[in-house]
Amino acid sequence: MIDKDSAEWWNKNKRTEDEFCEVDVPVKLLDLSVEKAEKYDAIIVDEGQDFKPEWFEFLEGLLKDPDEARFVVFFDEKQDVFKTQFLRN
Length: 89
What we know:
The chain has four helices and two strands, in the order αααβαβ. It has about 90 residues and is of the alpha+beta class.
């Protein structure tokens, strides 16, 4: 999705890997227009324990019909290495 919006963005962001994955990519993803993005009948998330709540909100916006679509999240609370608090909220 980021490639379709601005392919050159990846080369302009050269911070540490942790900063890039934890800050840069999520912020850029949330900057993308959900209205312009491709829509899906189903979304499956693996490693859901590593997701932040706002990421799920963004993904929900990618569903074609929220009332009929499927949104499945697989997670393992014992693998919550980033301590996202997702499982505690």
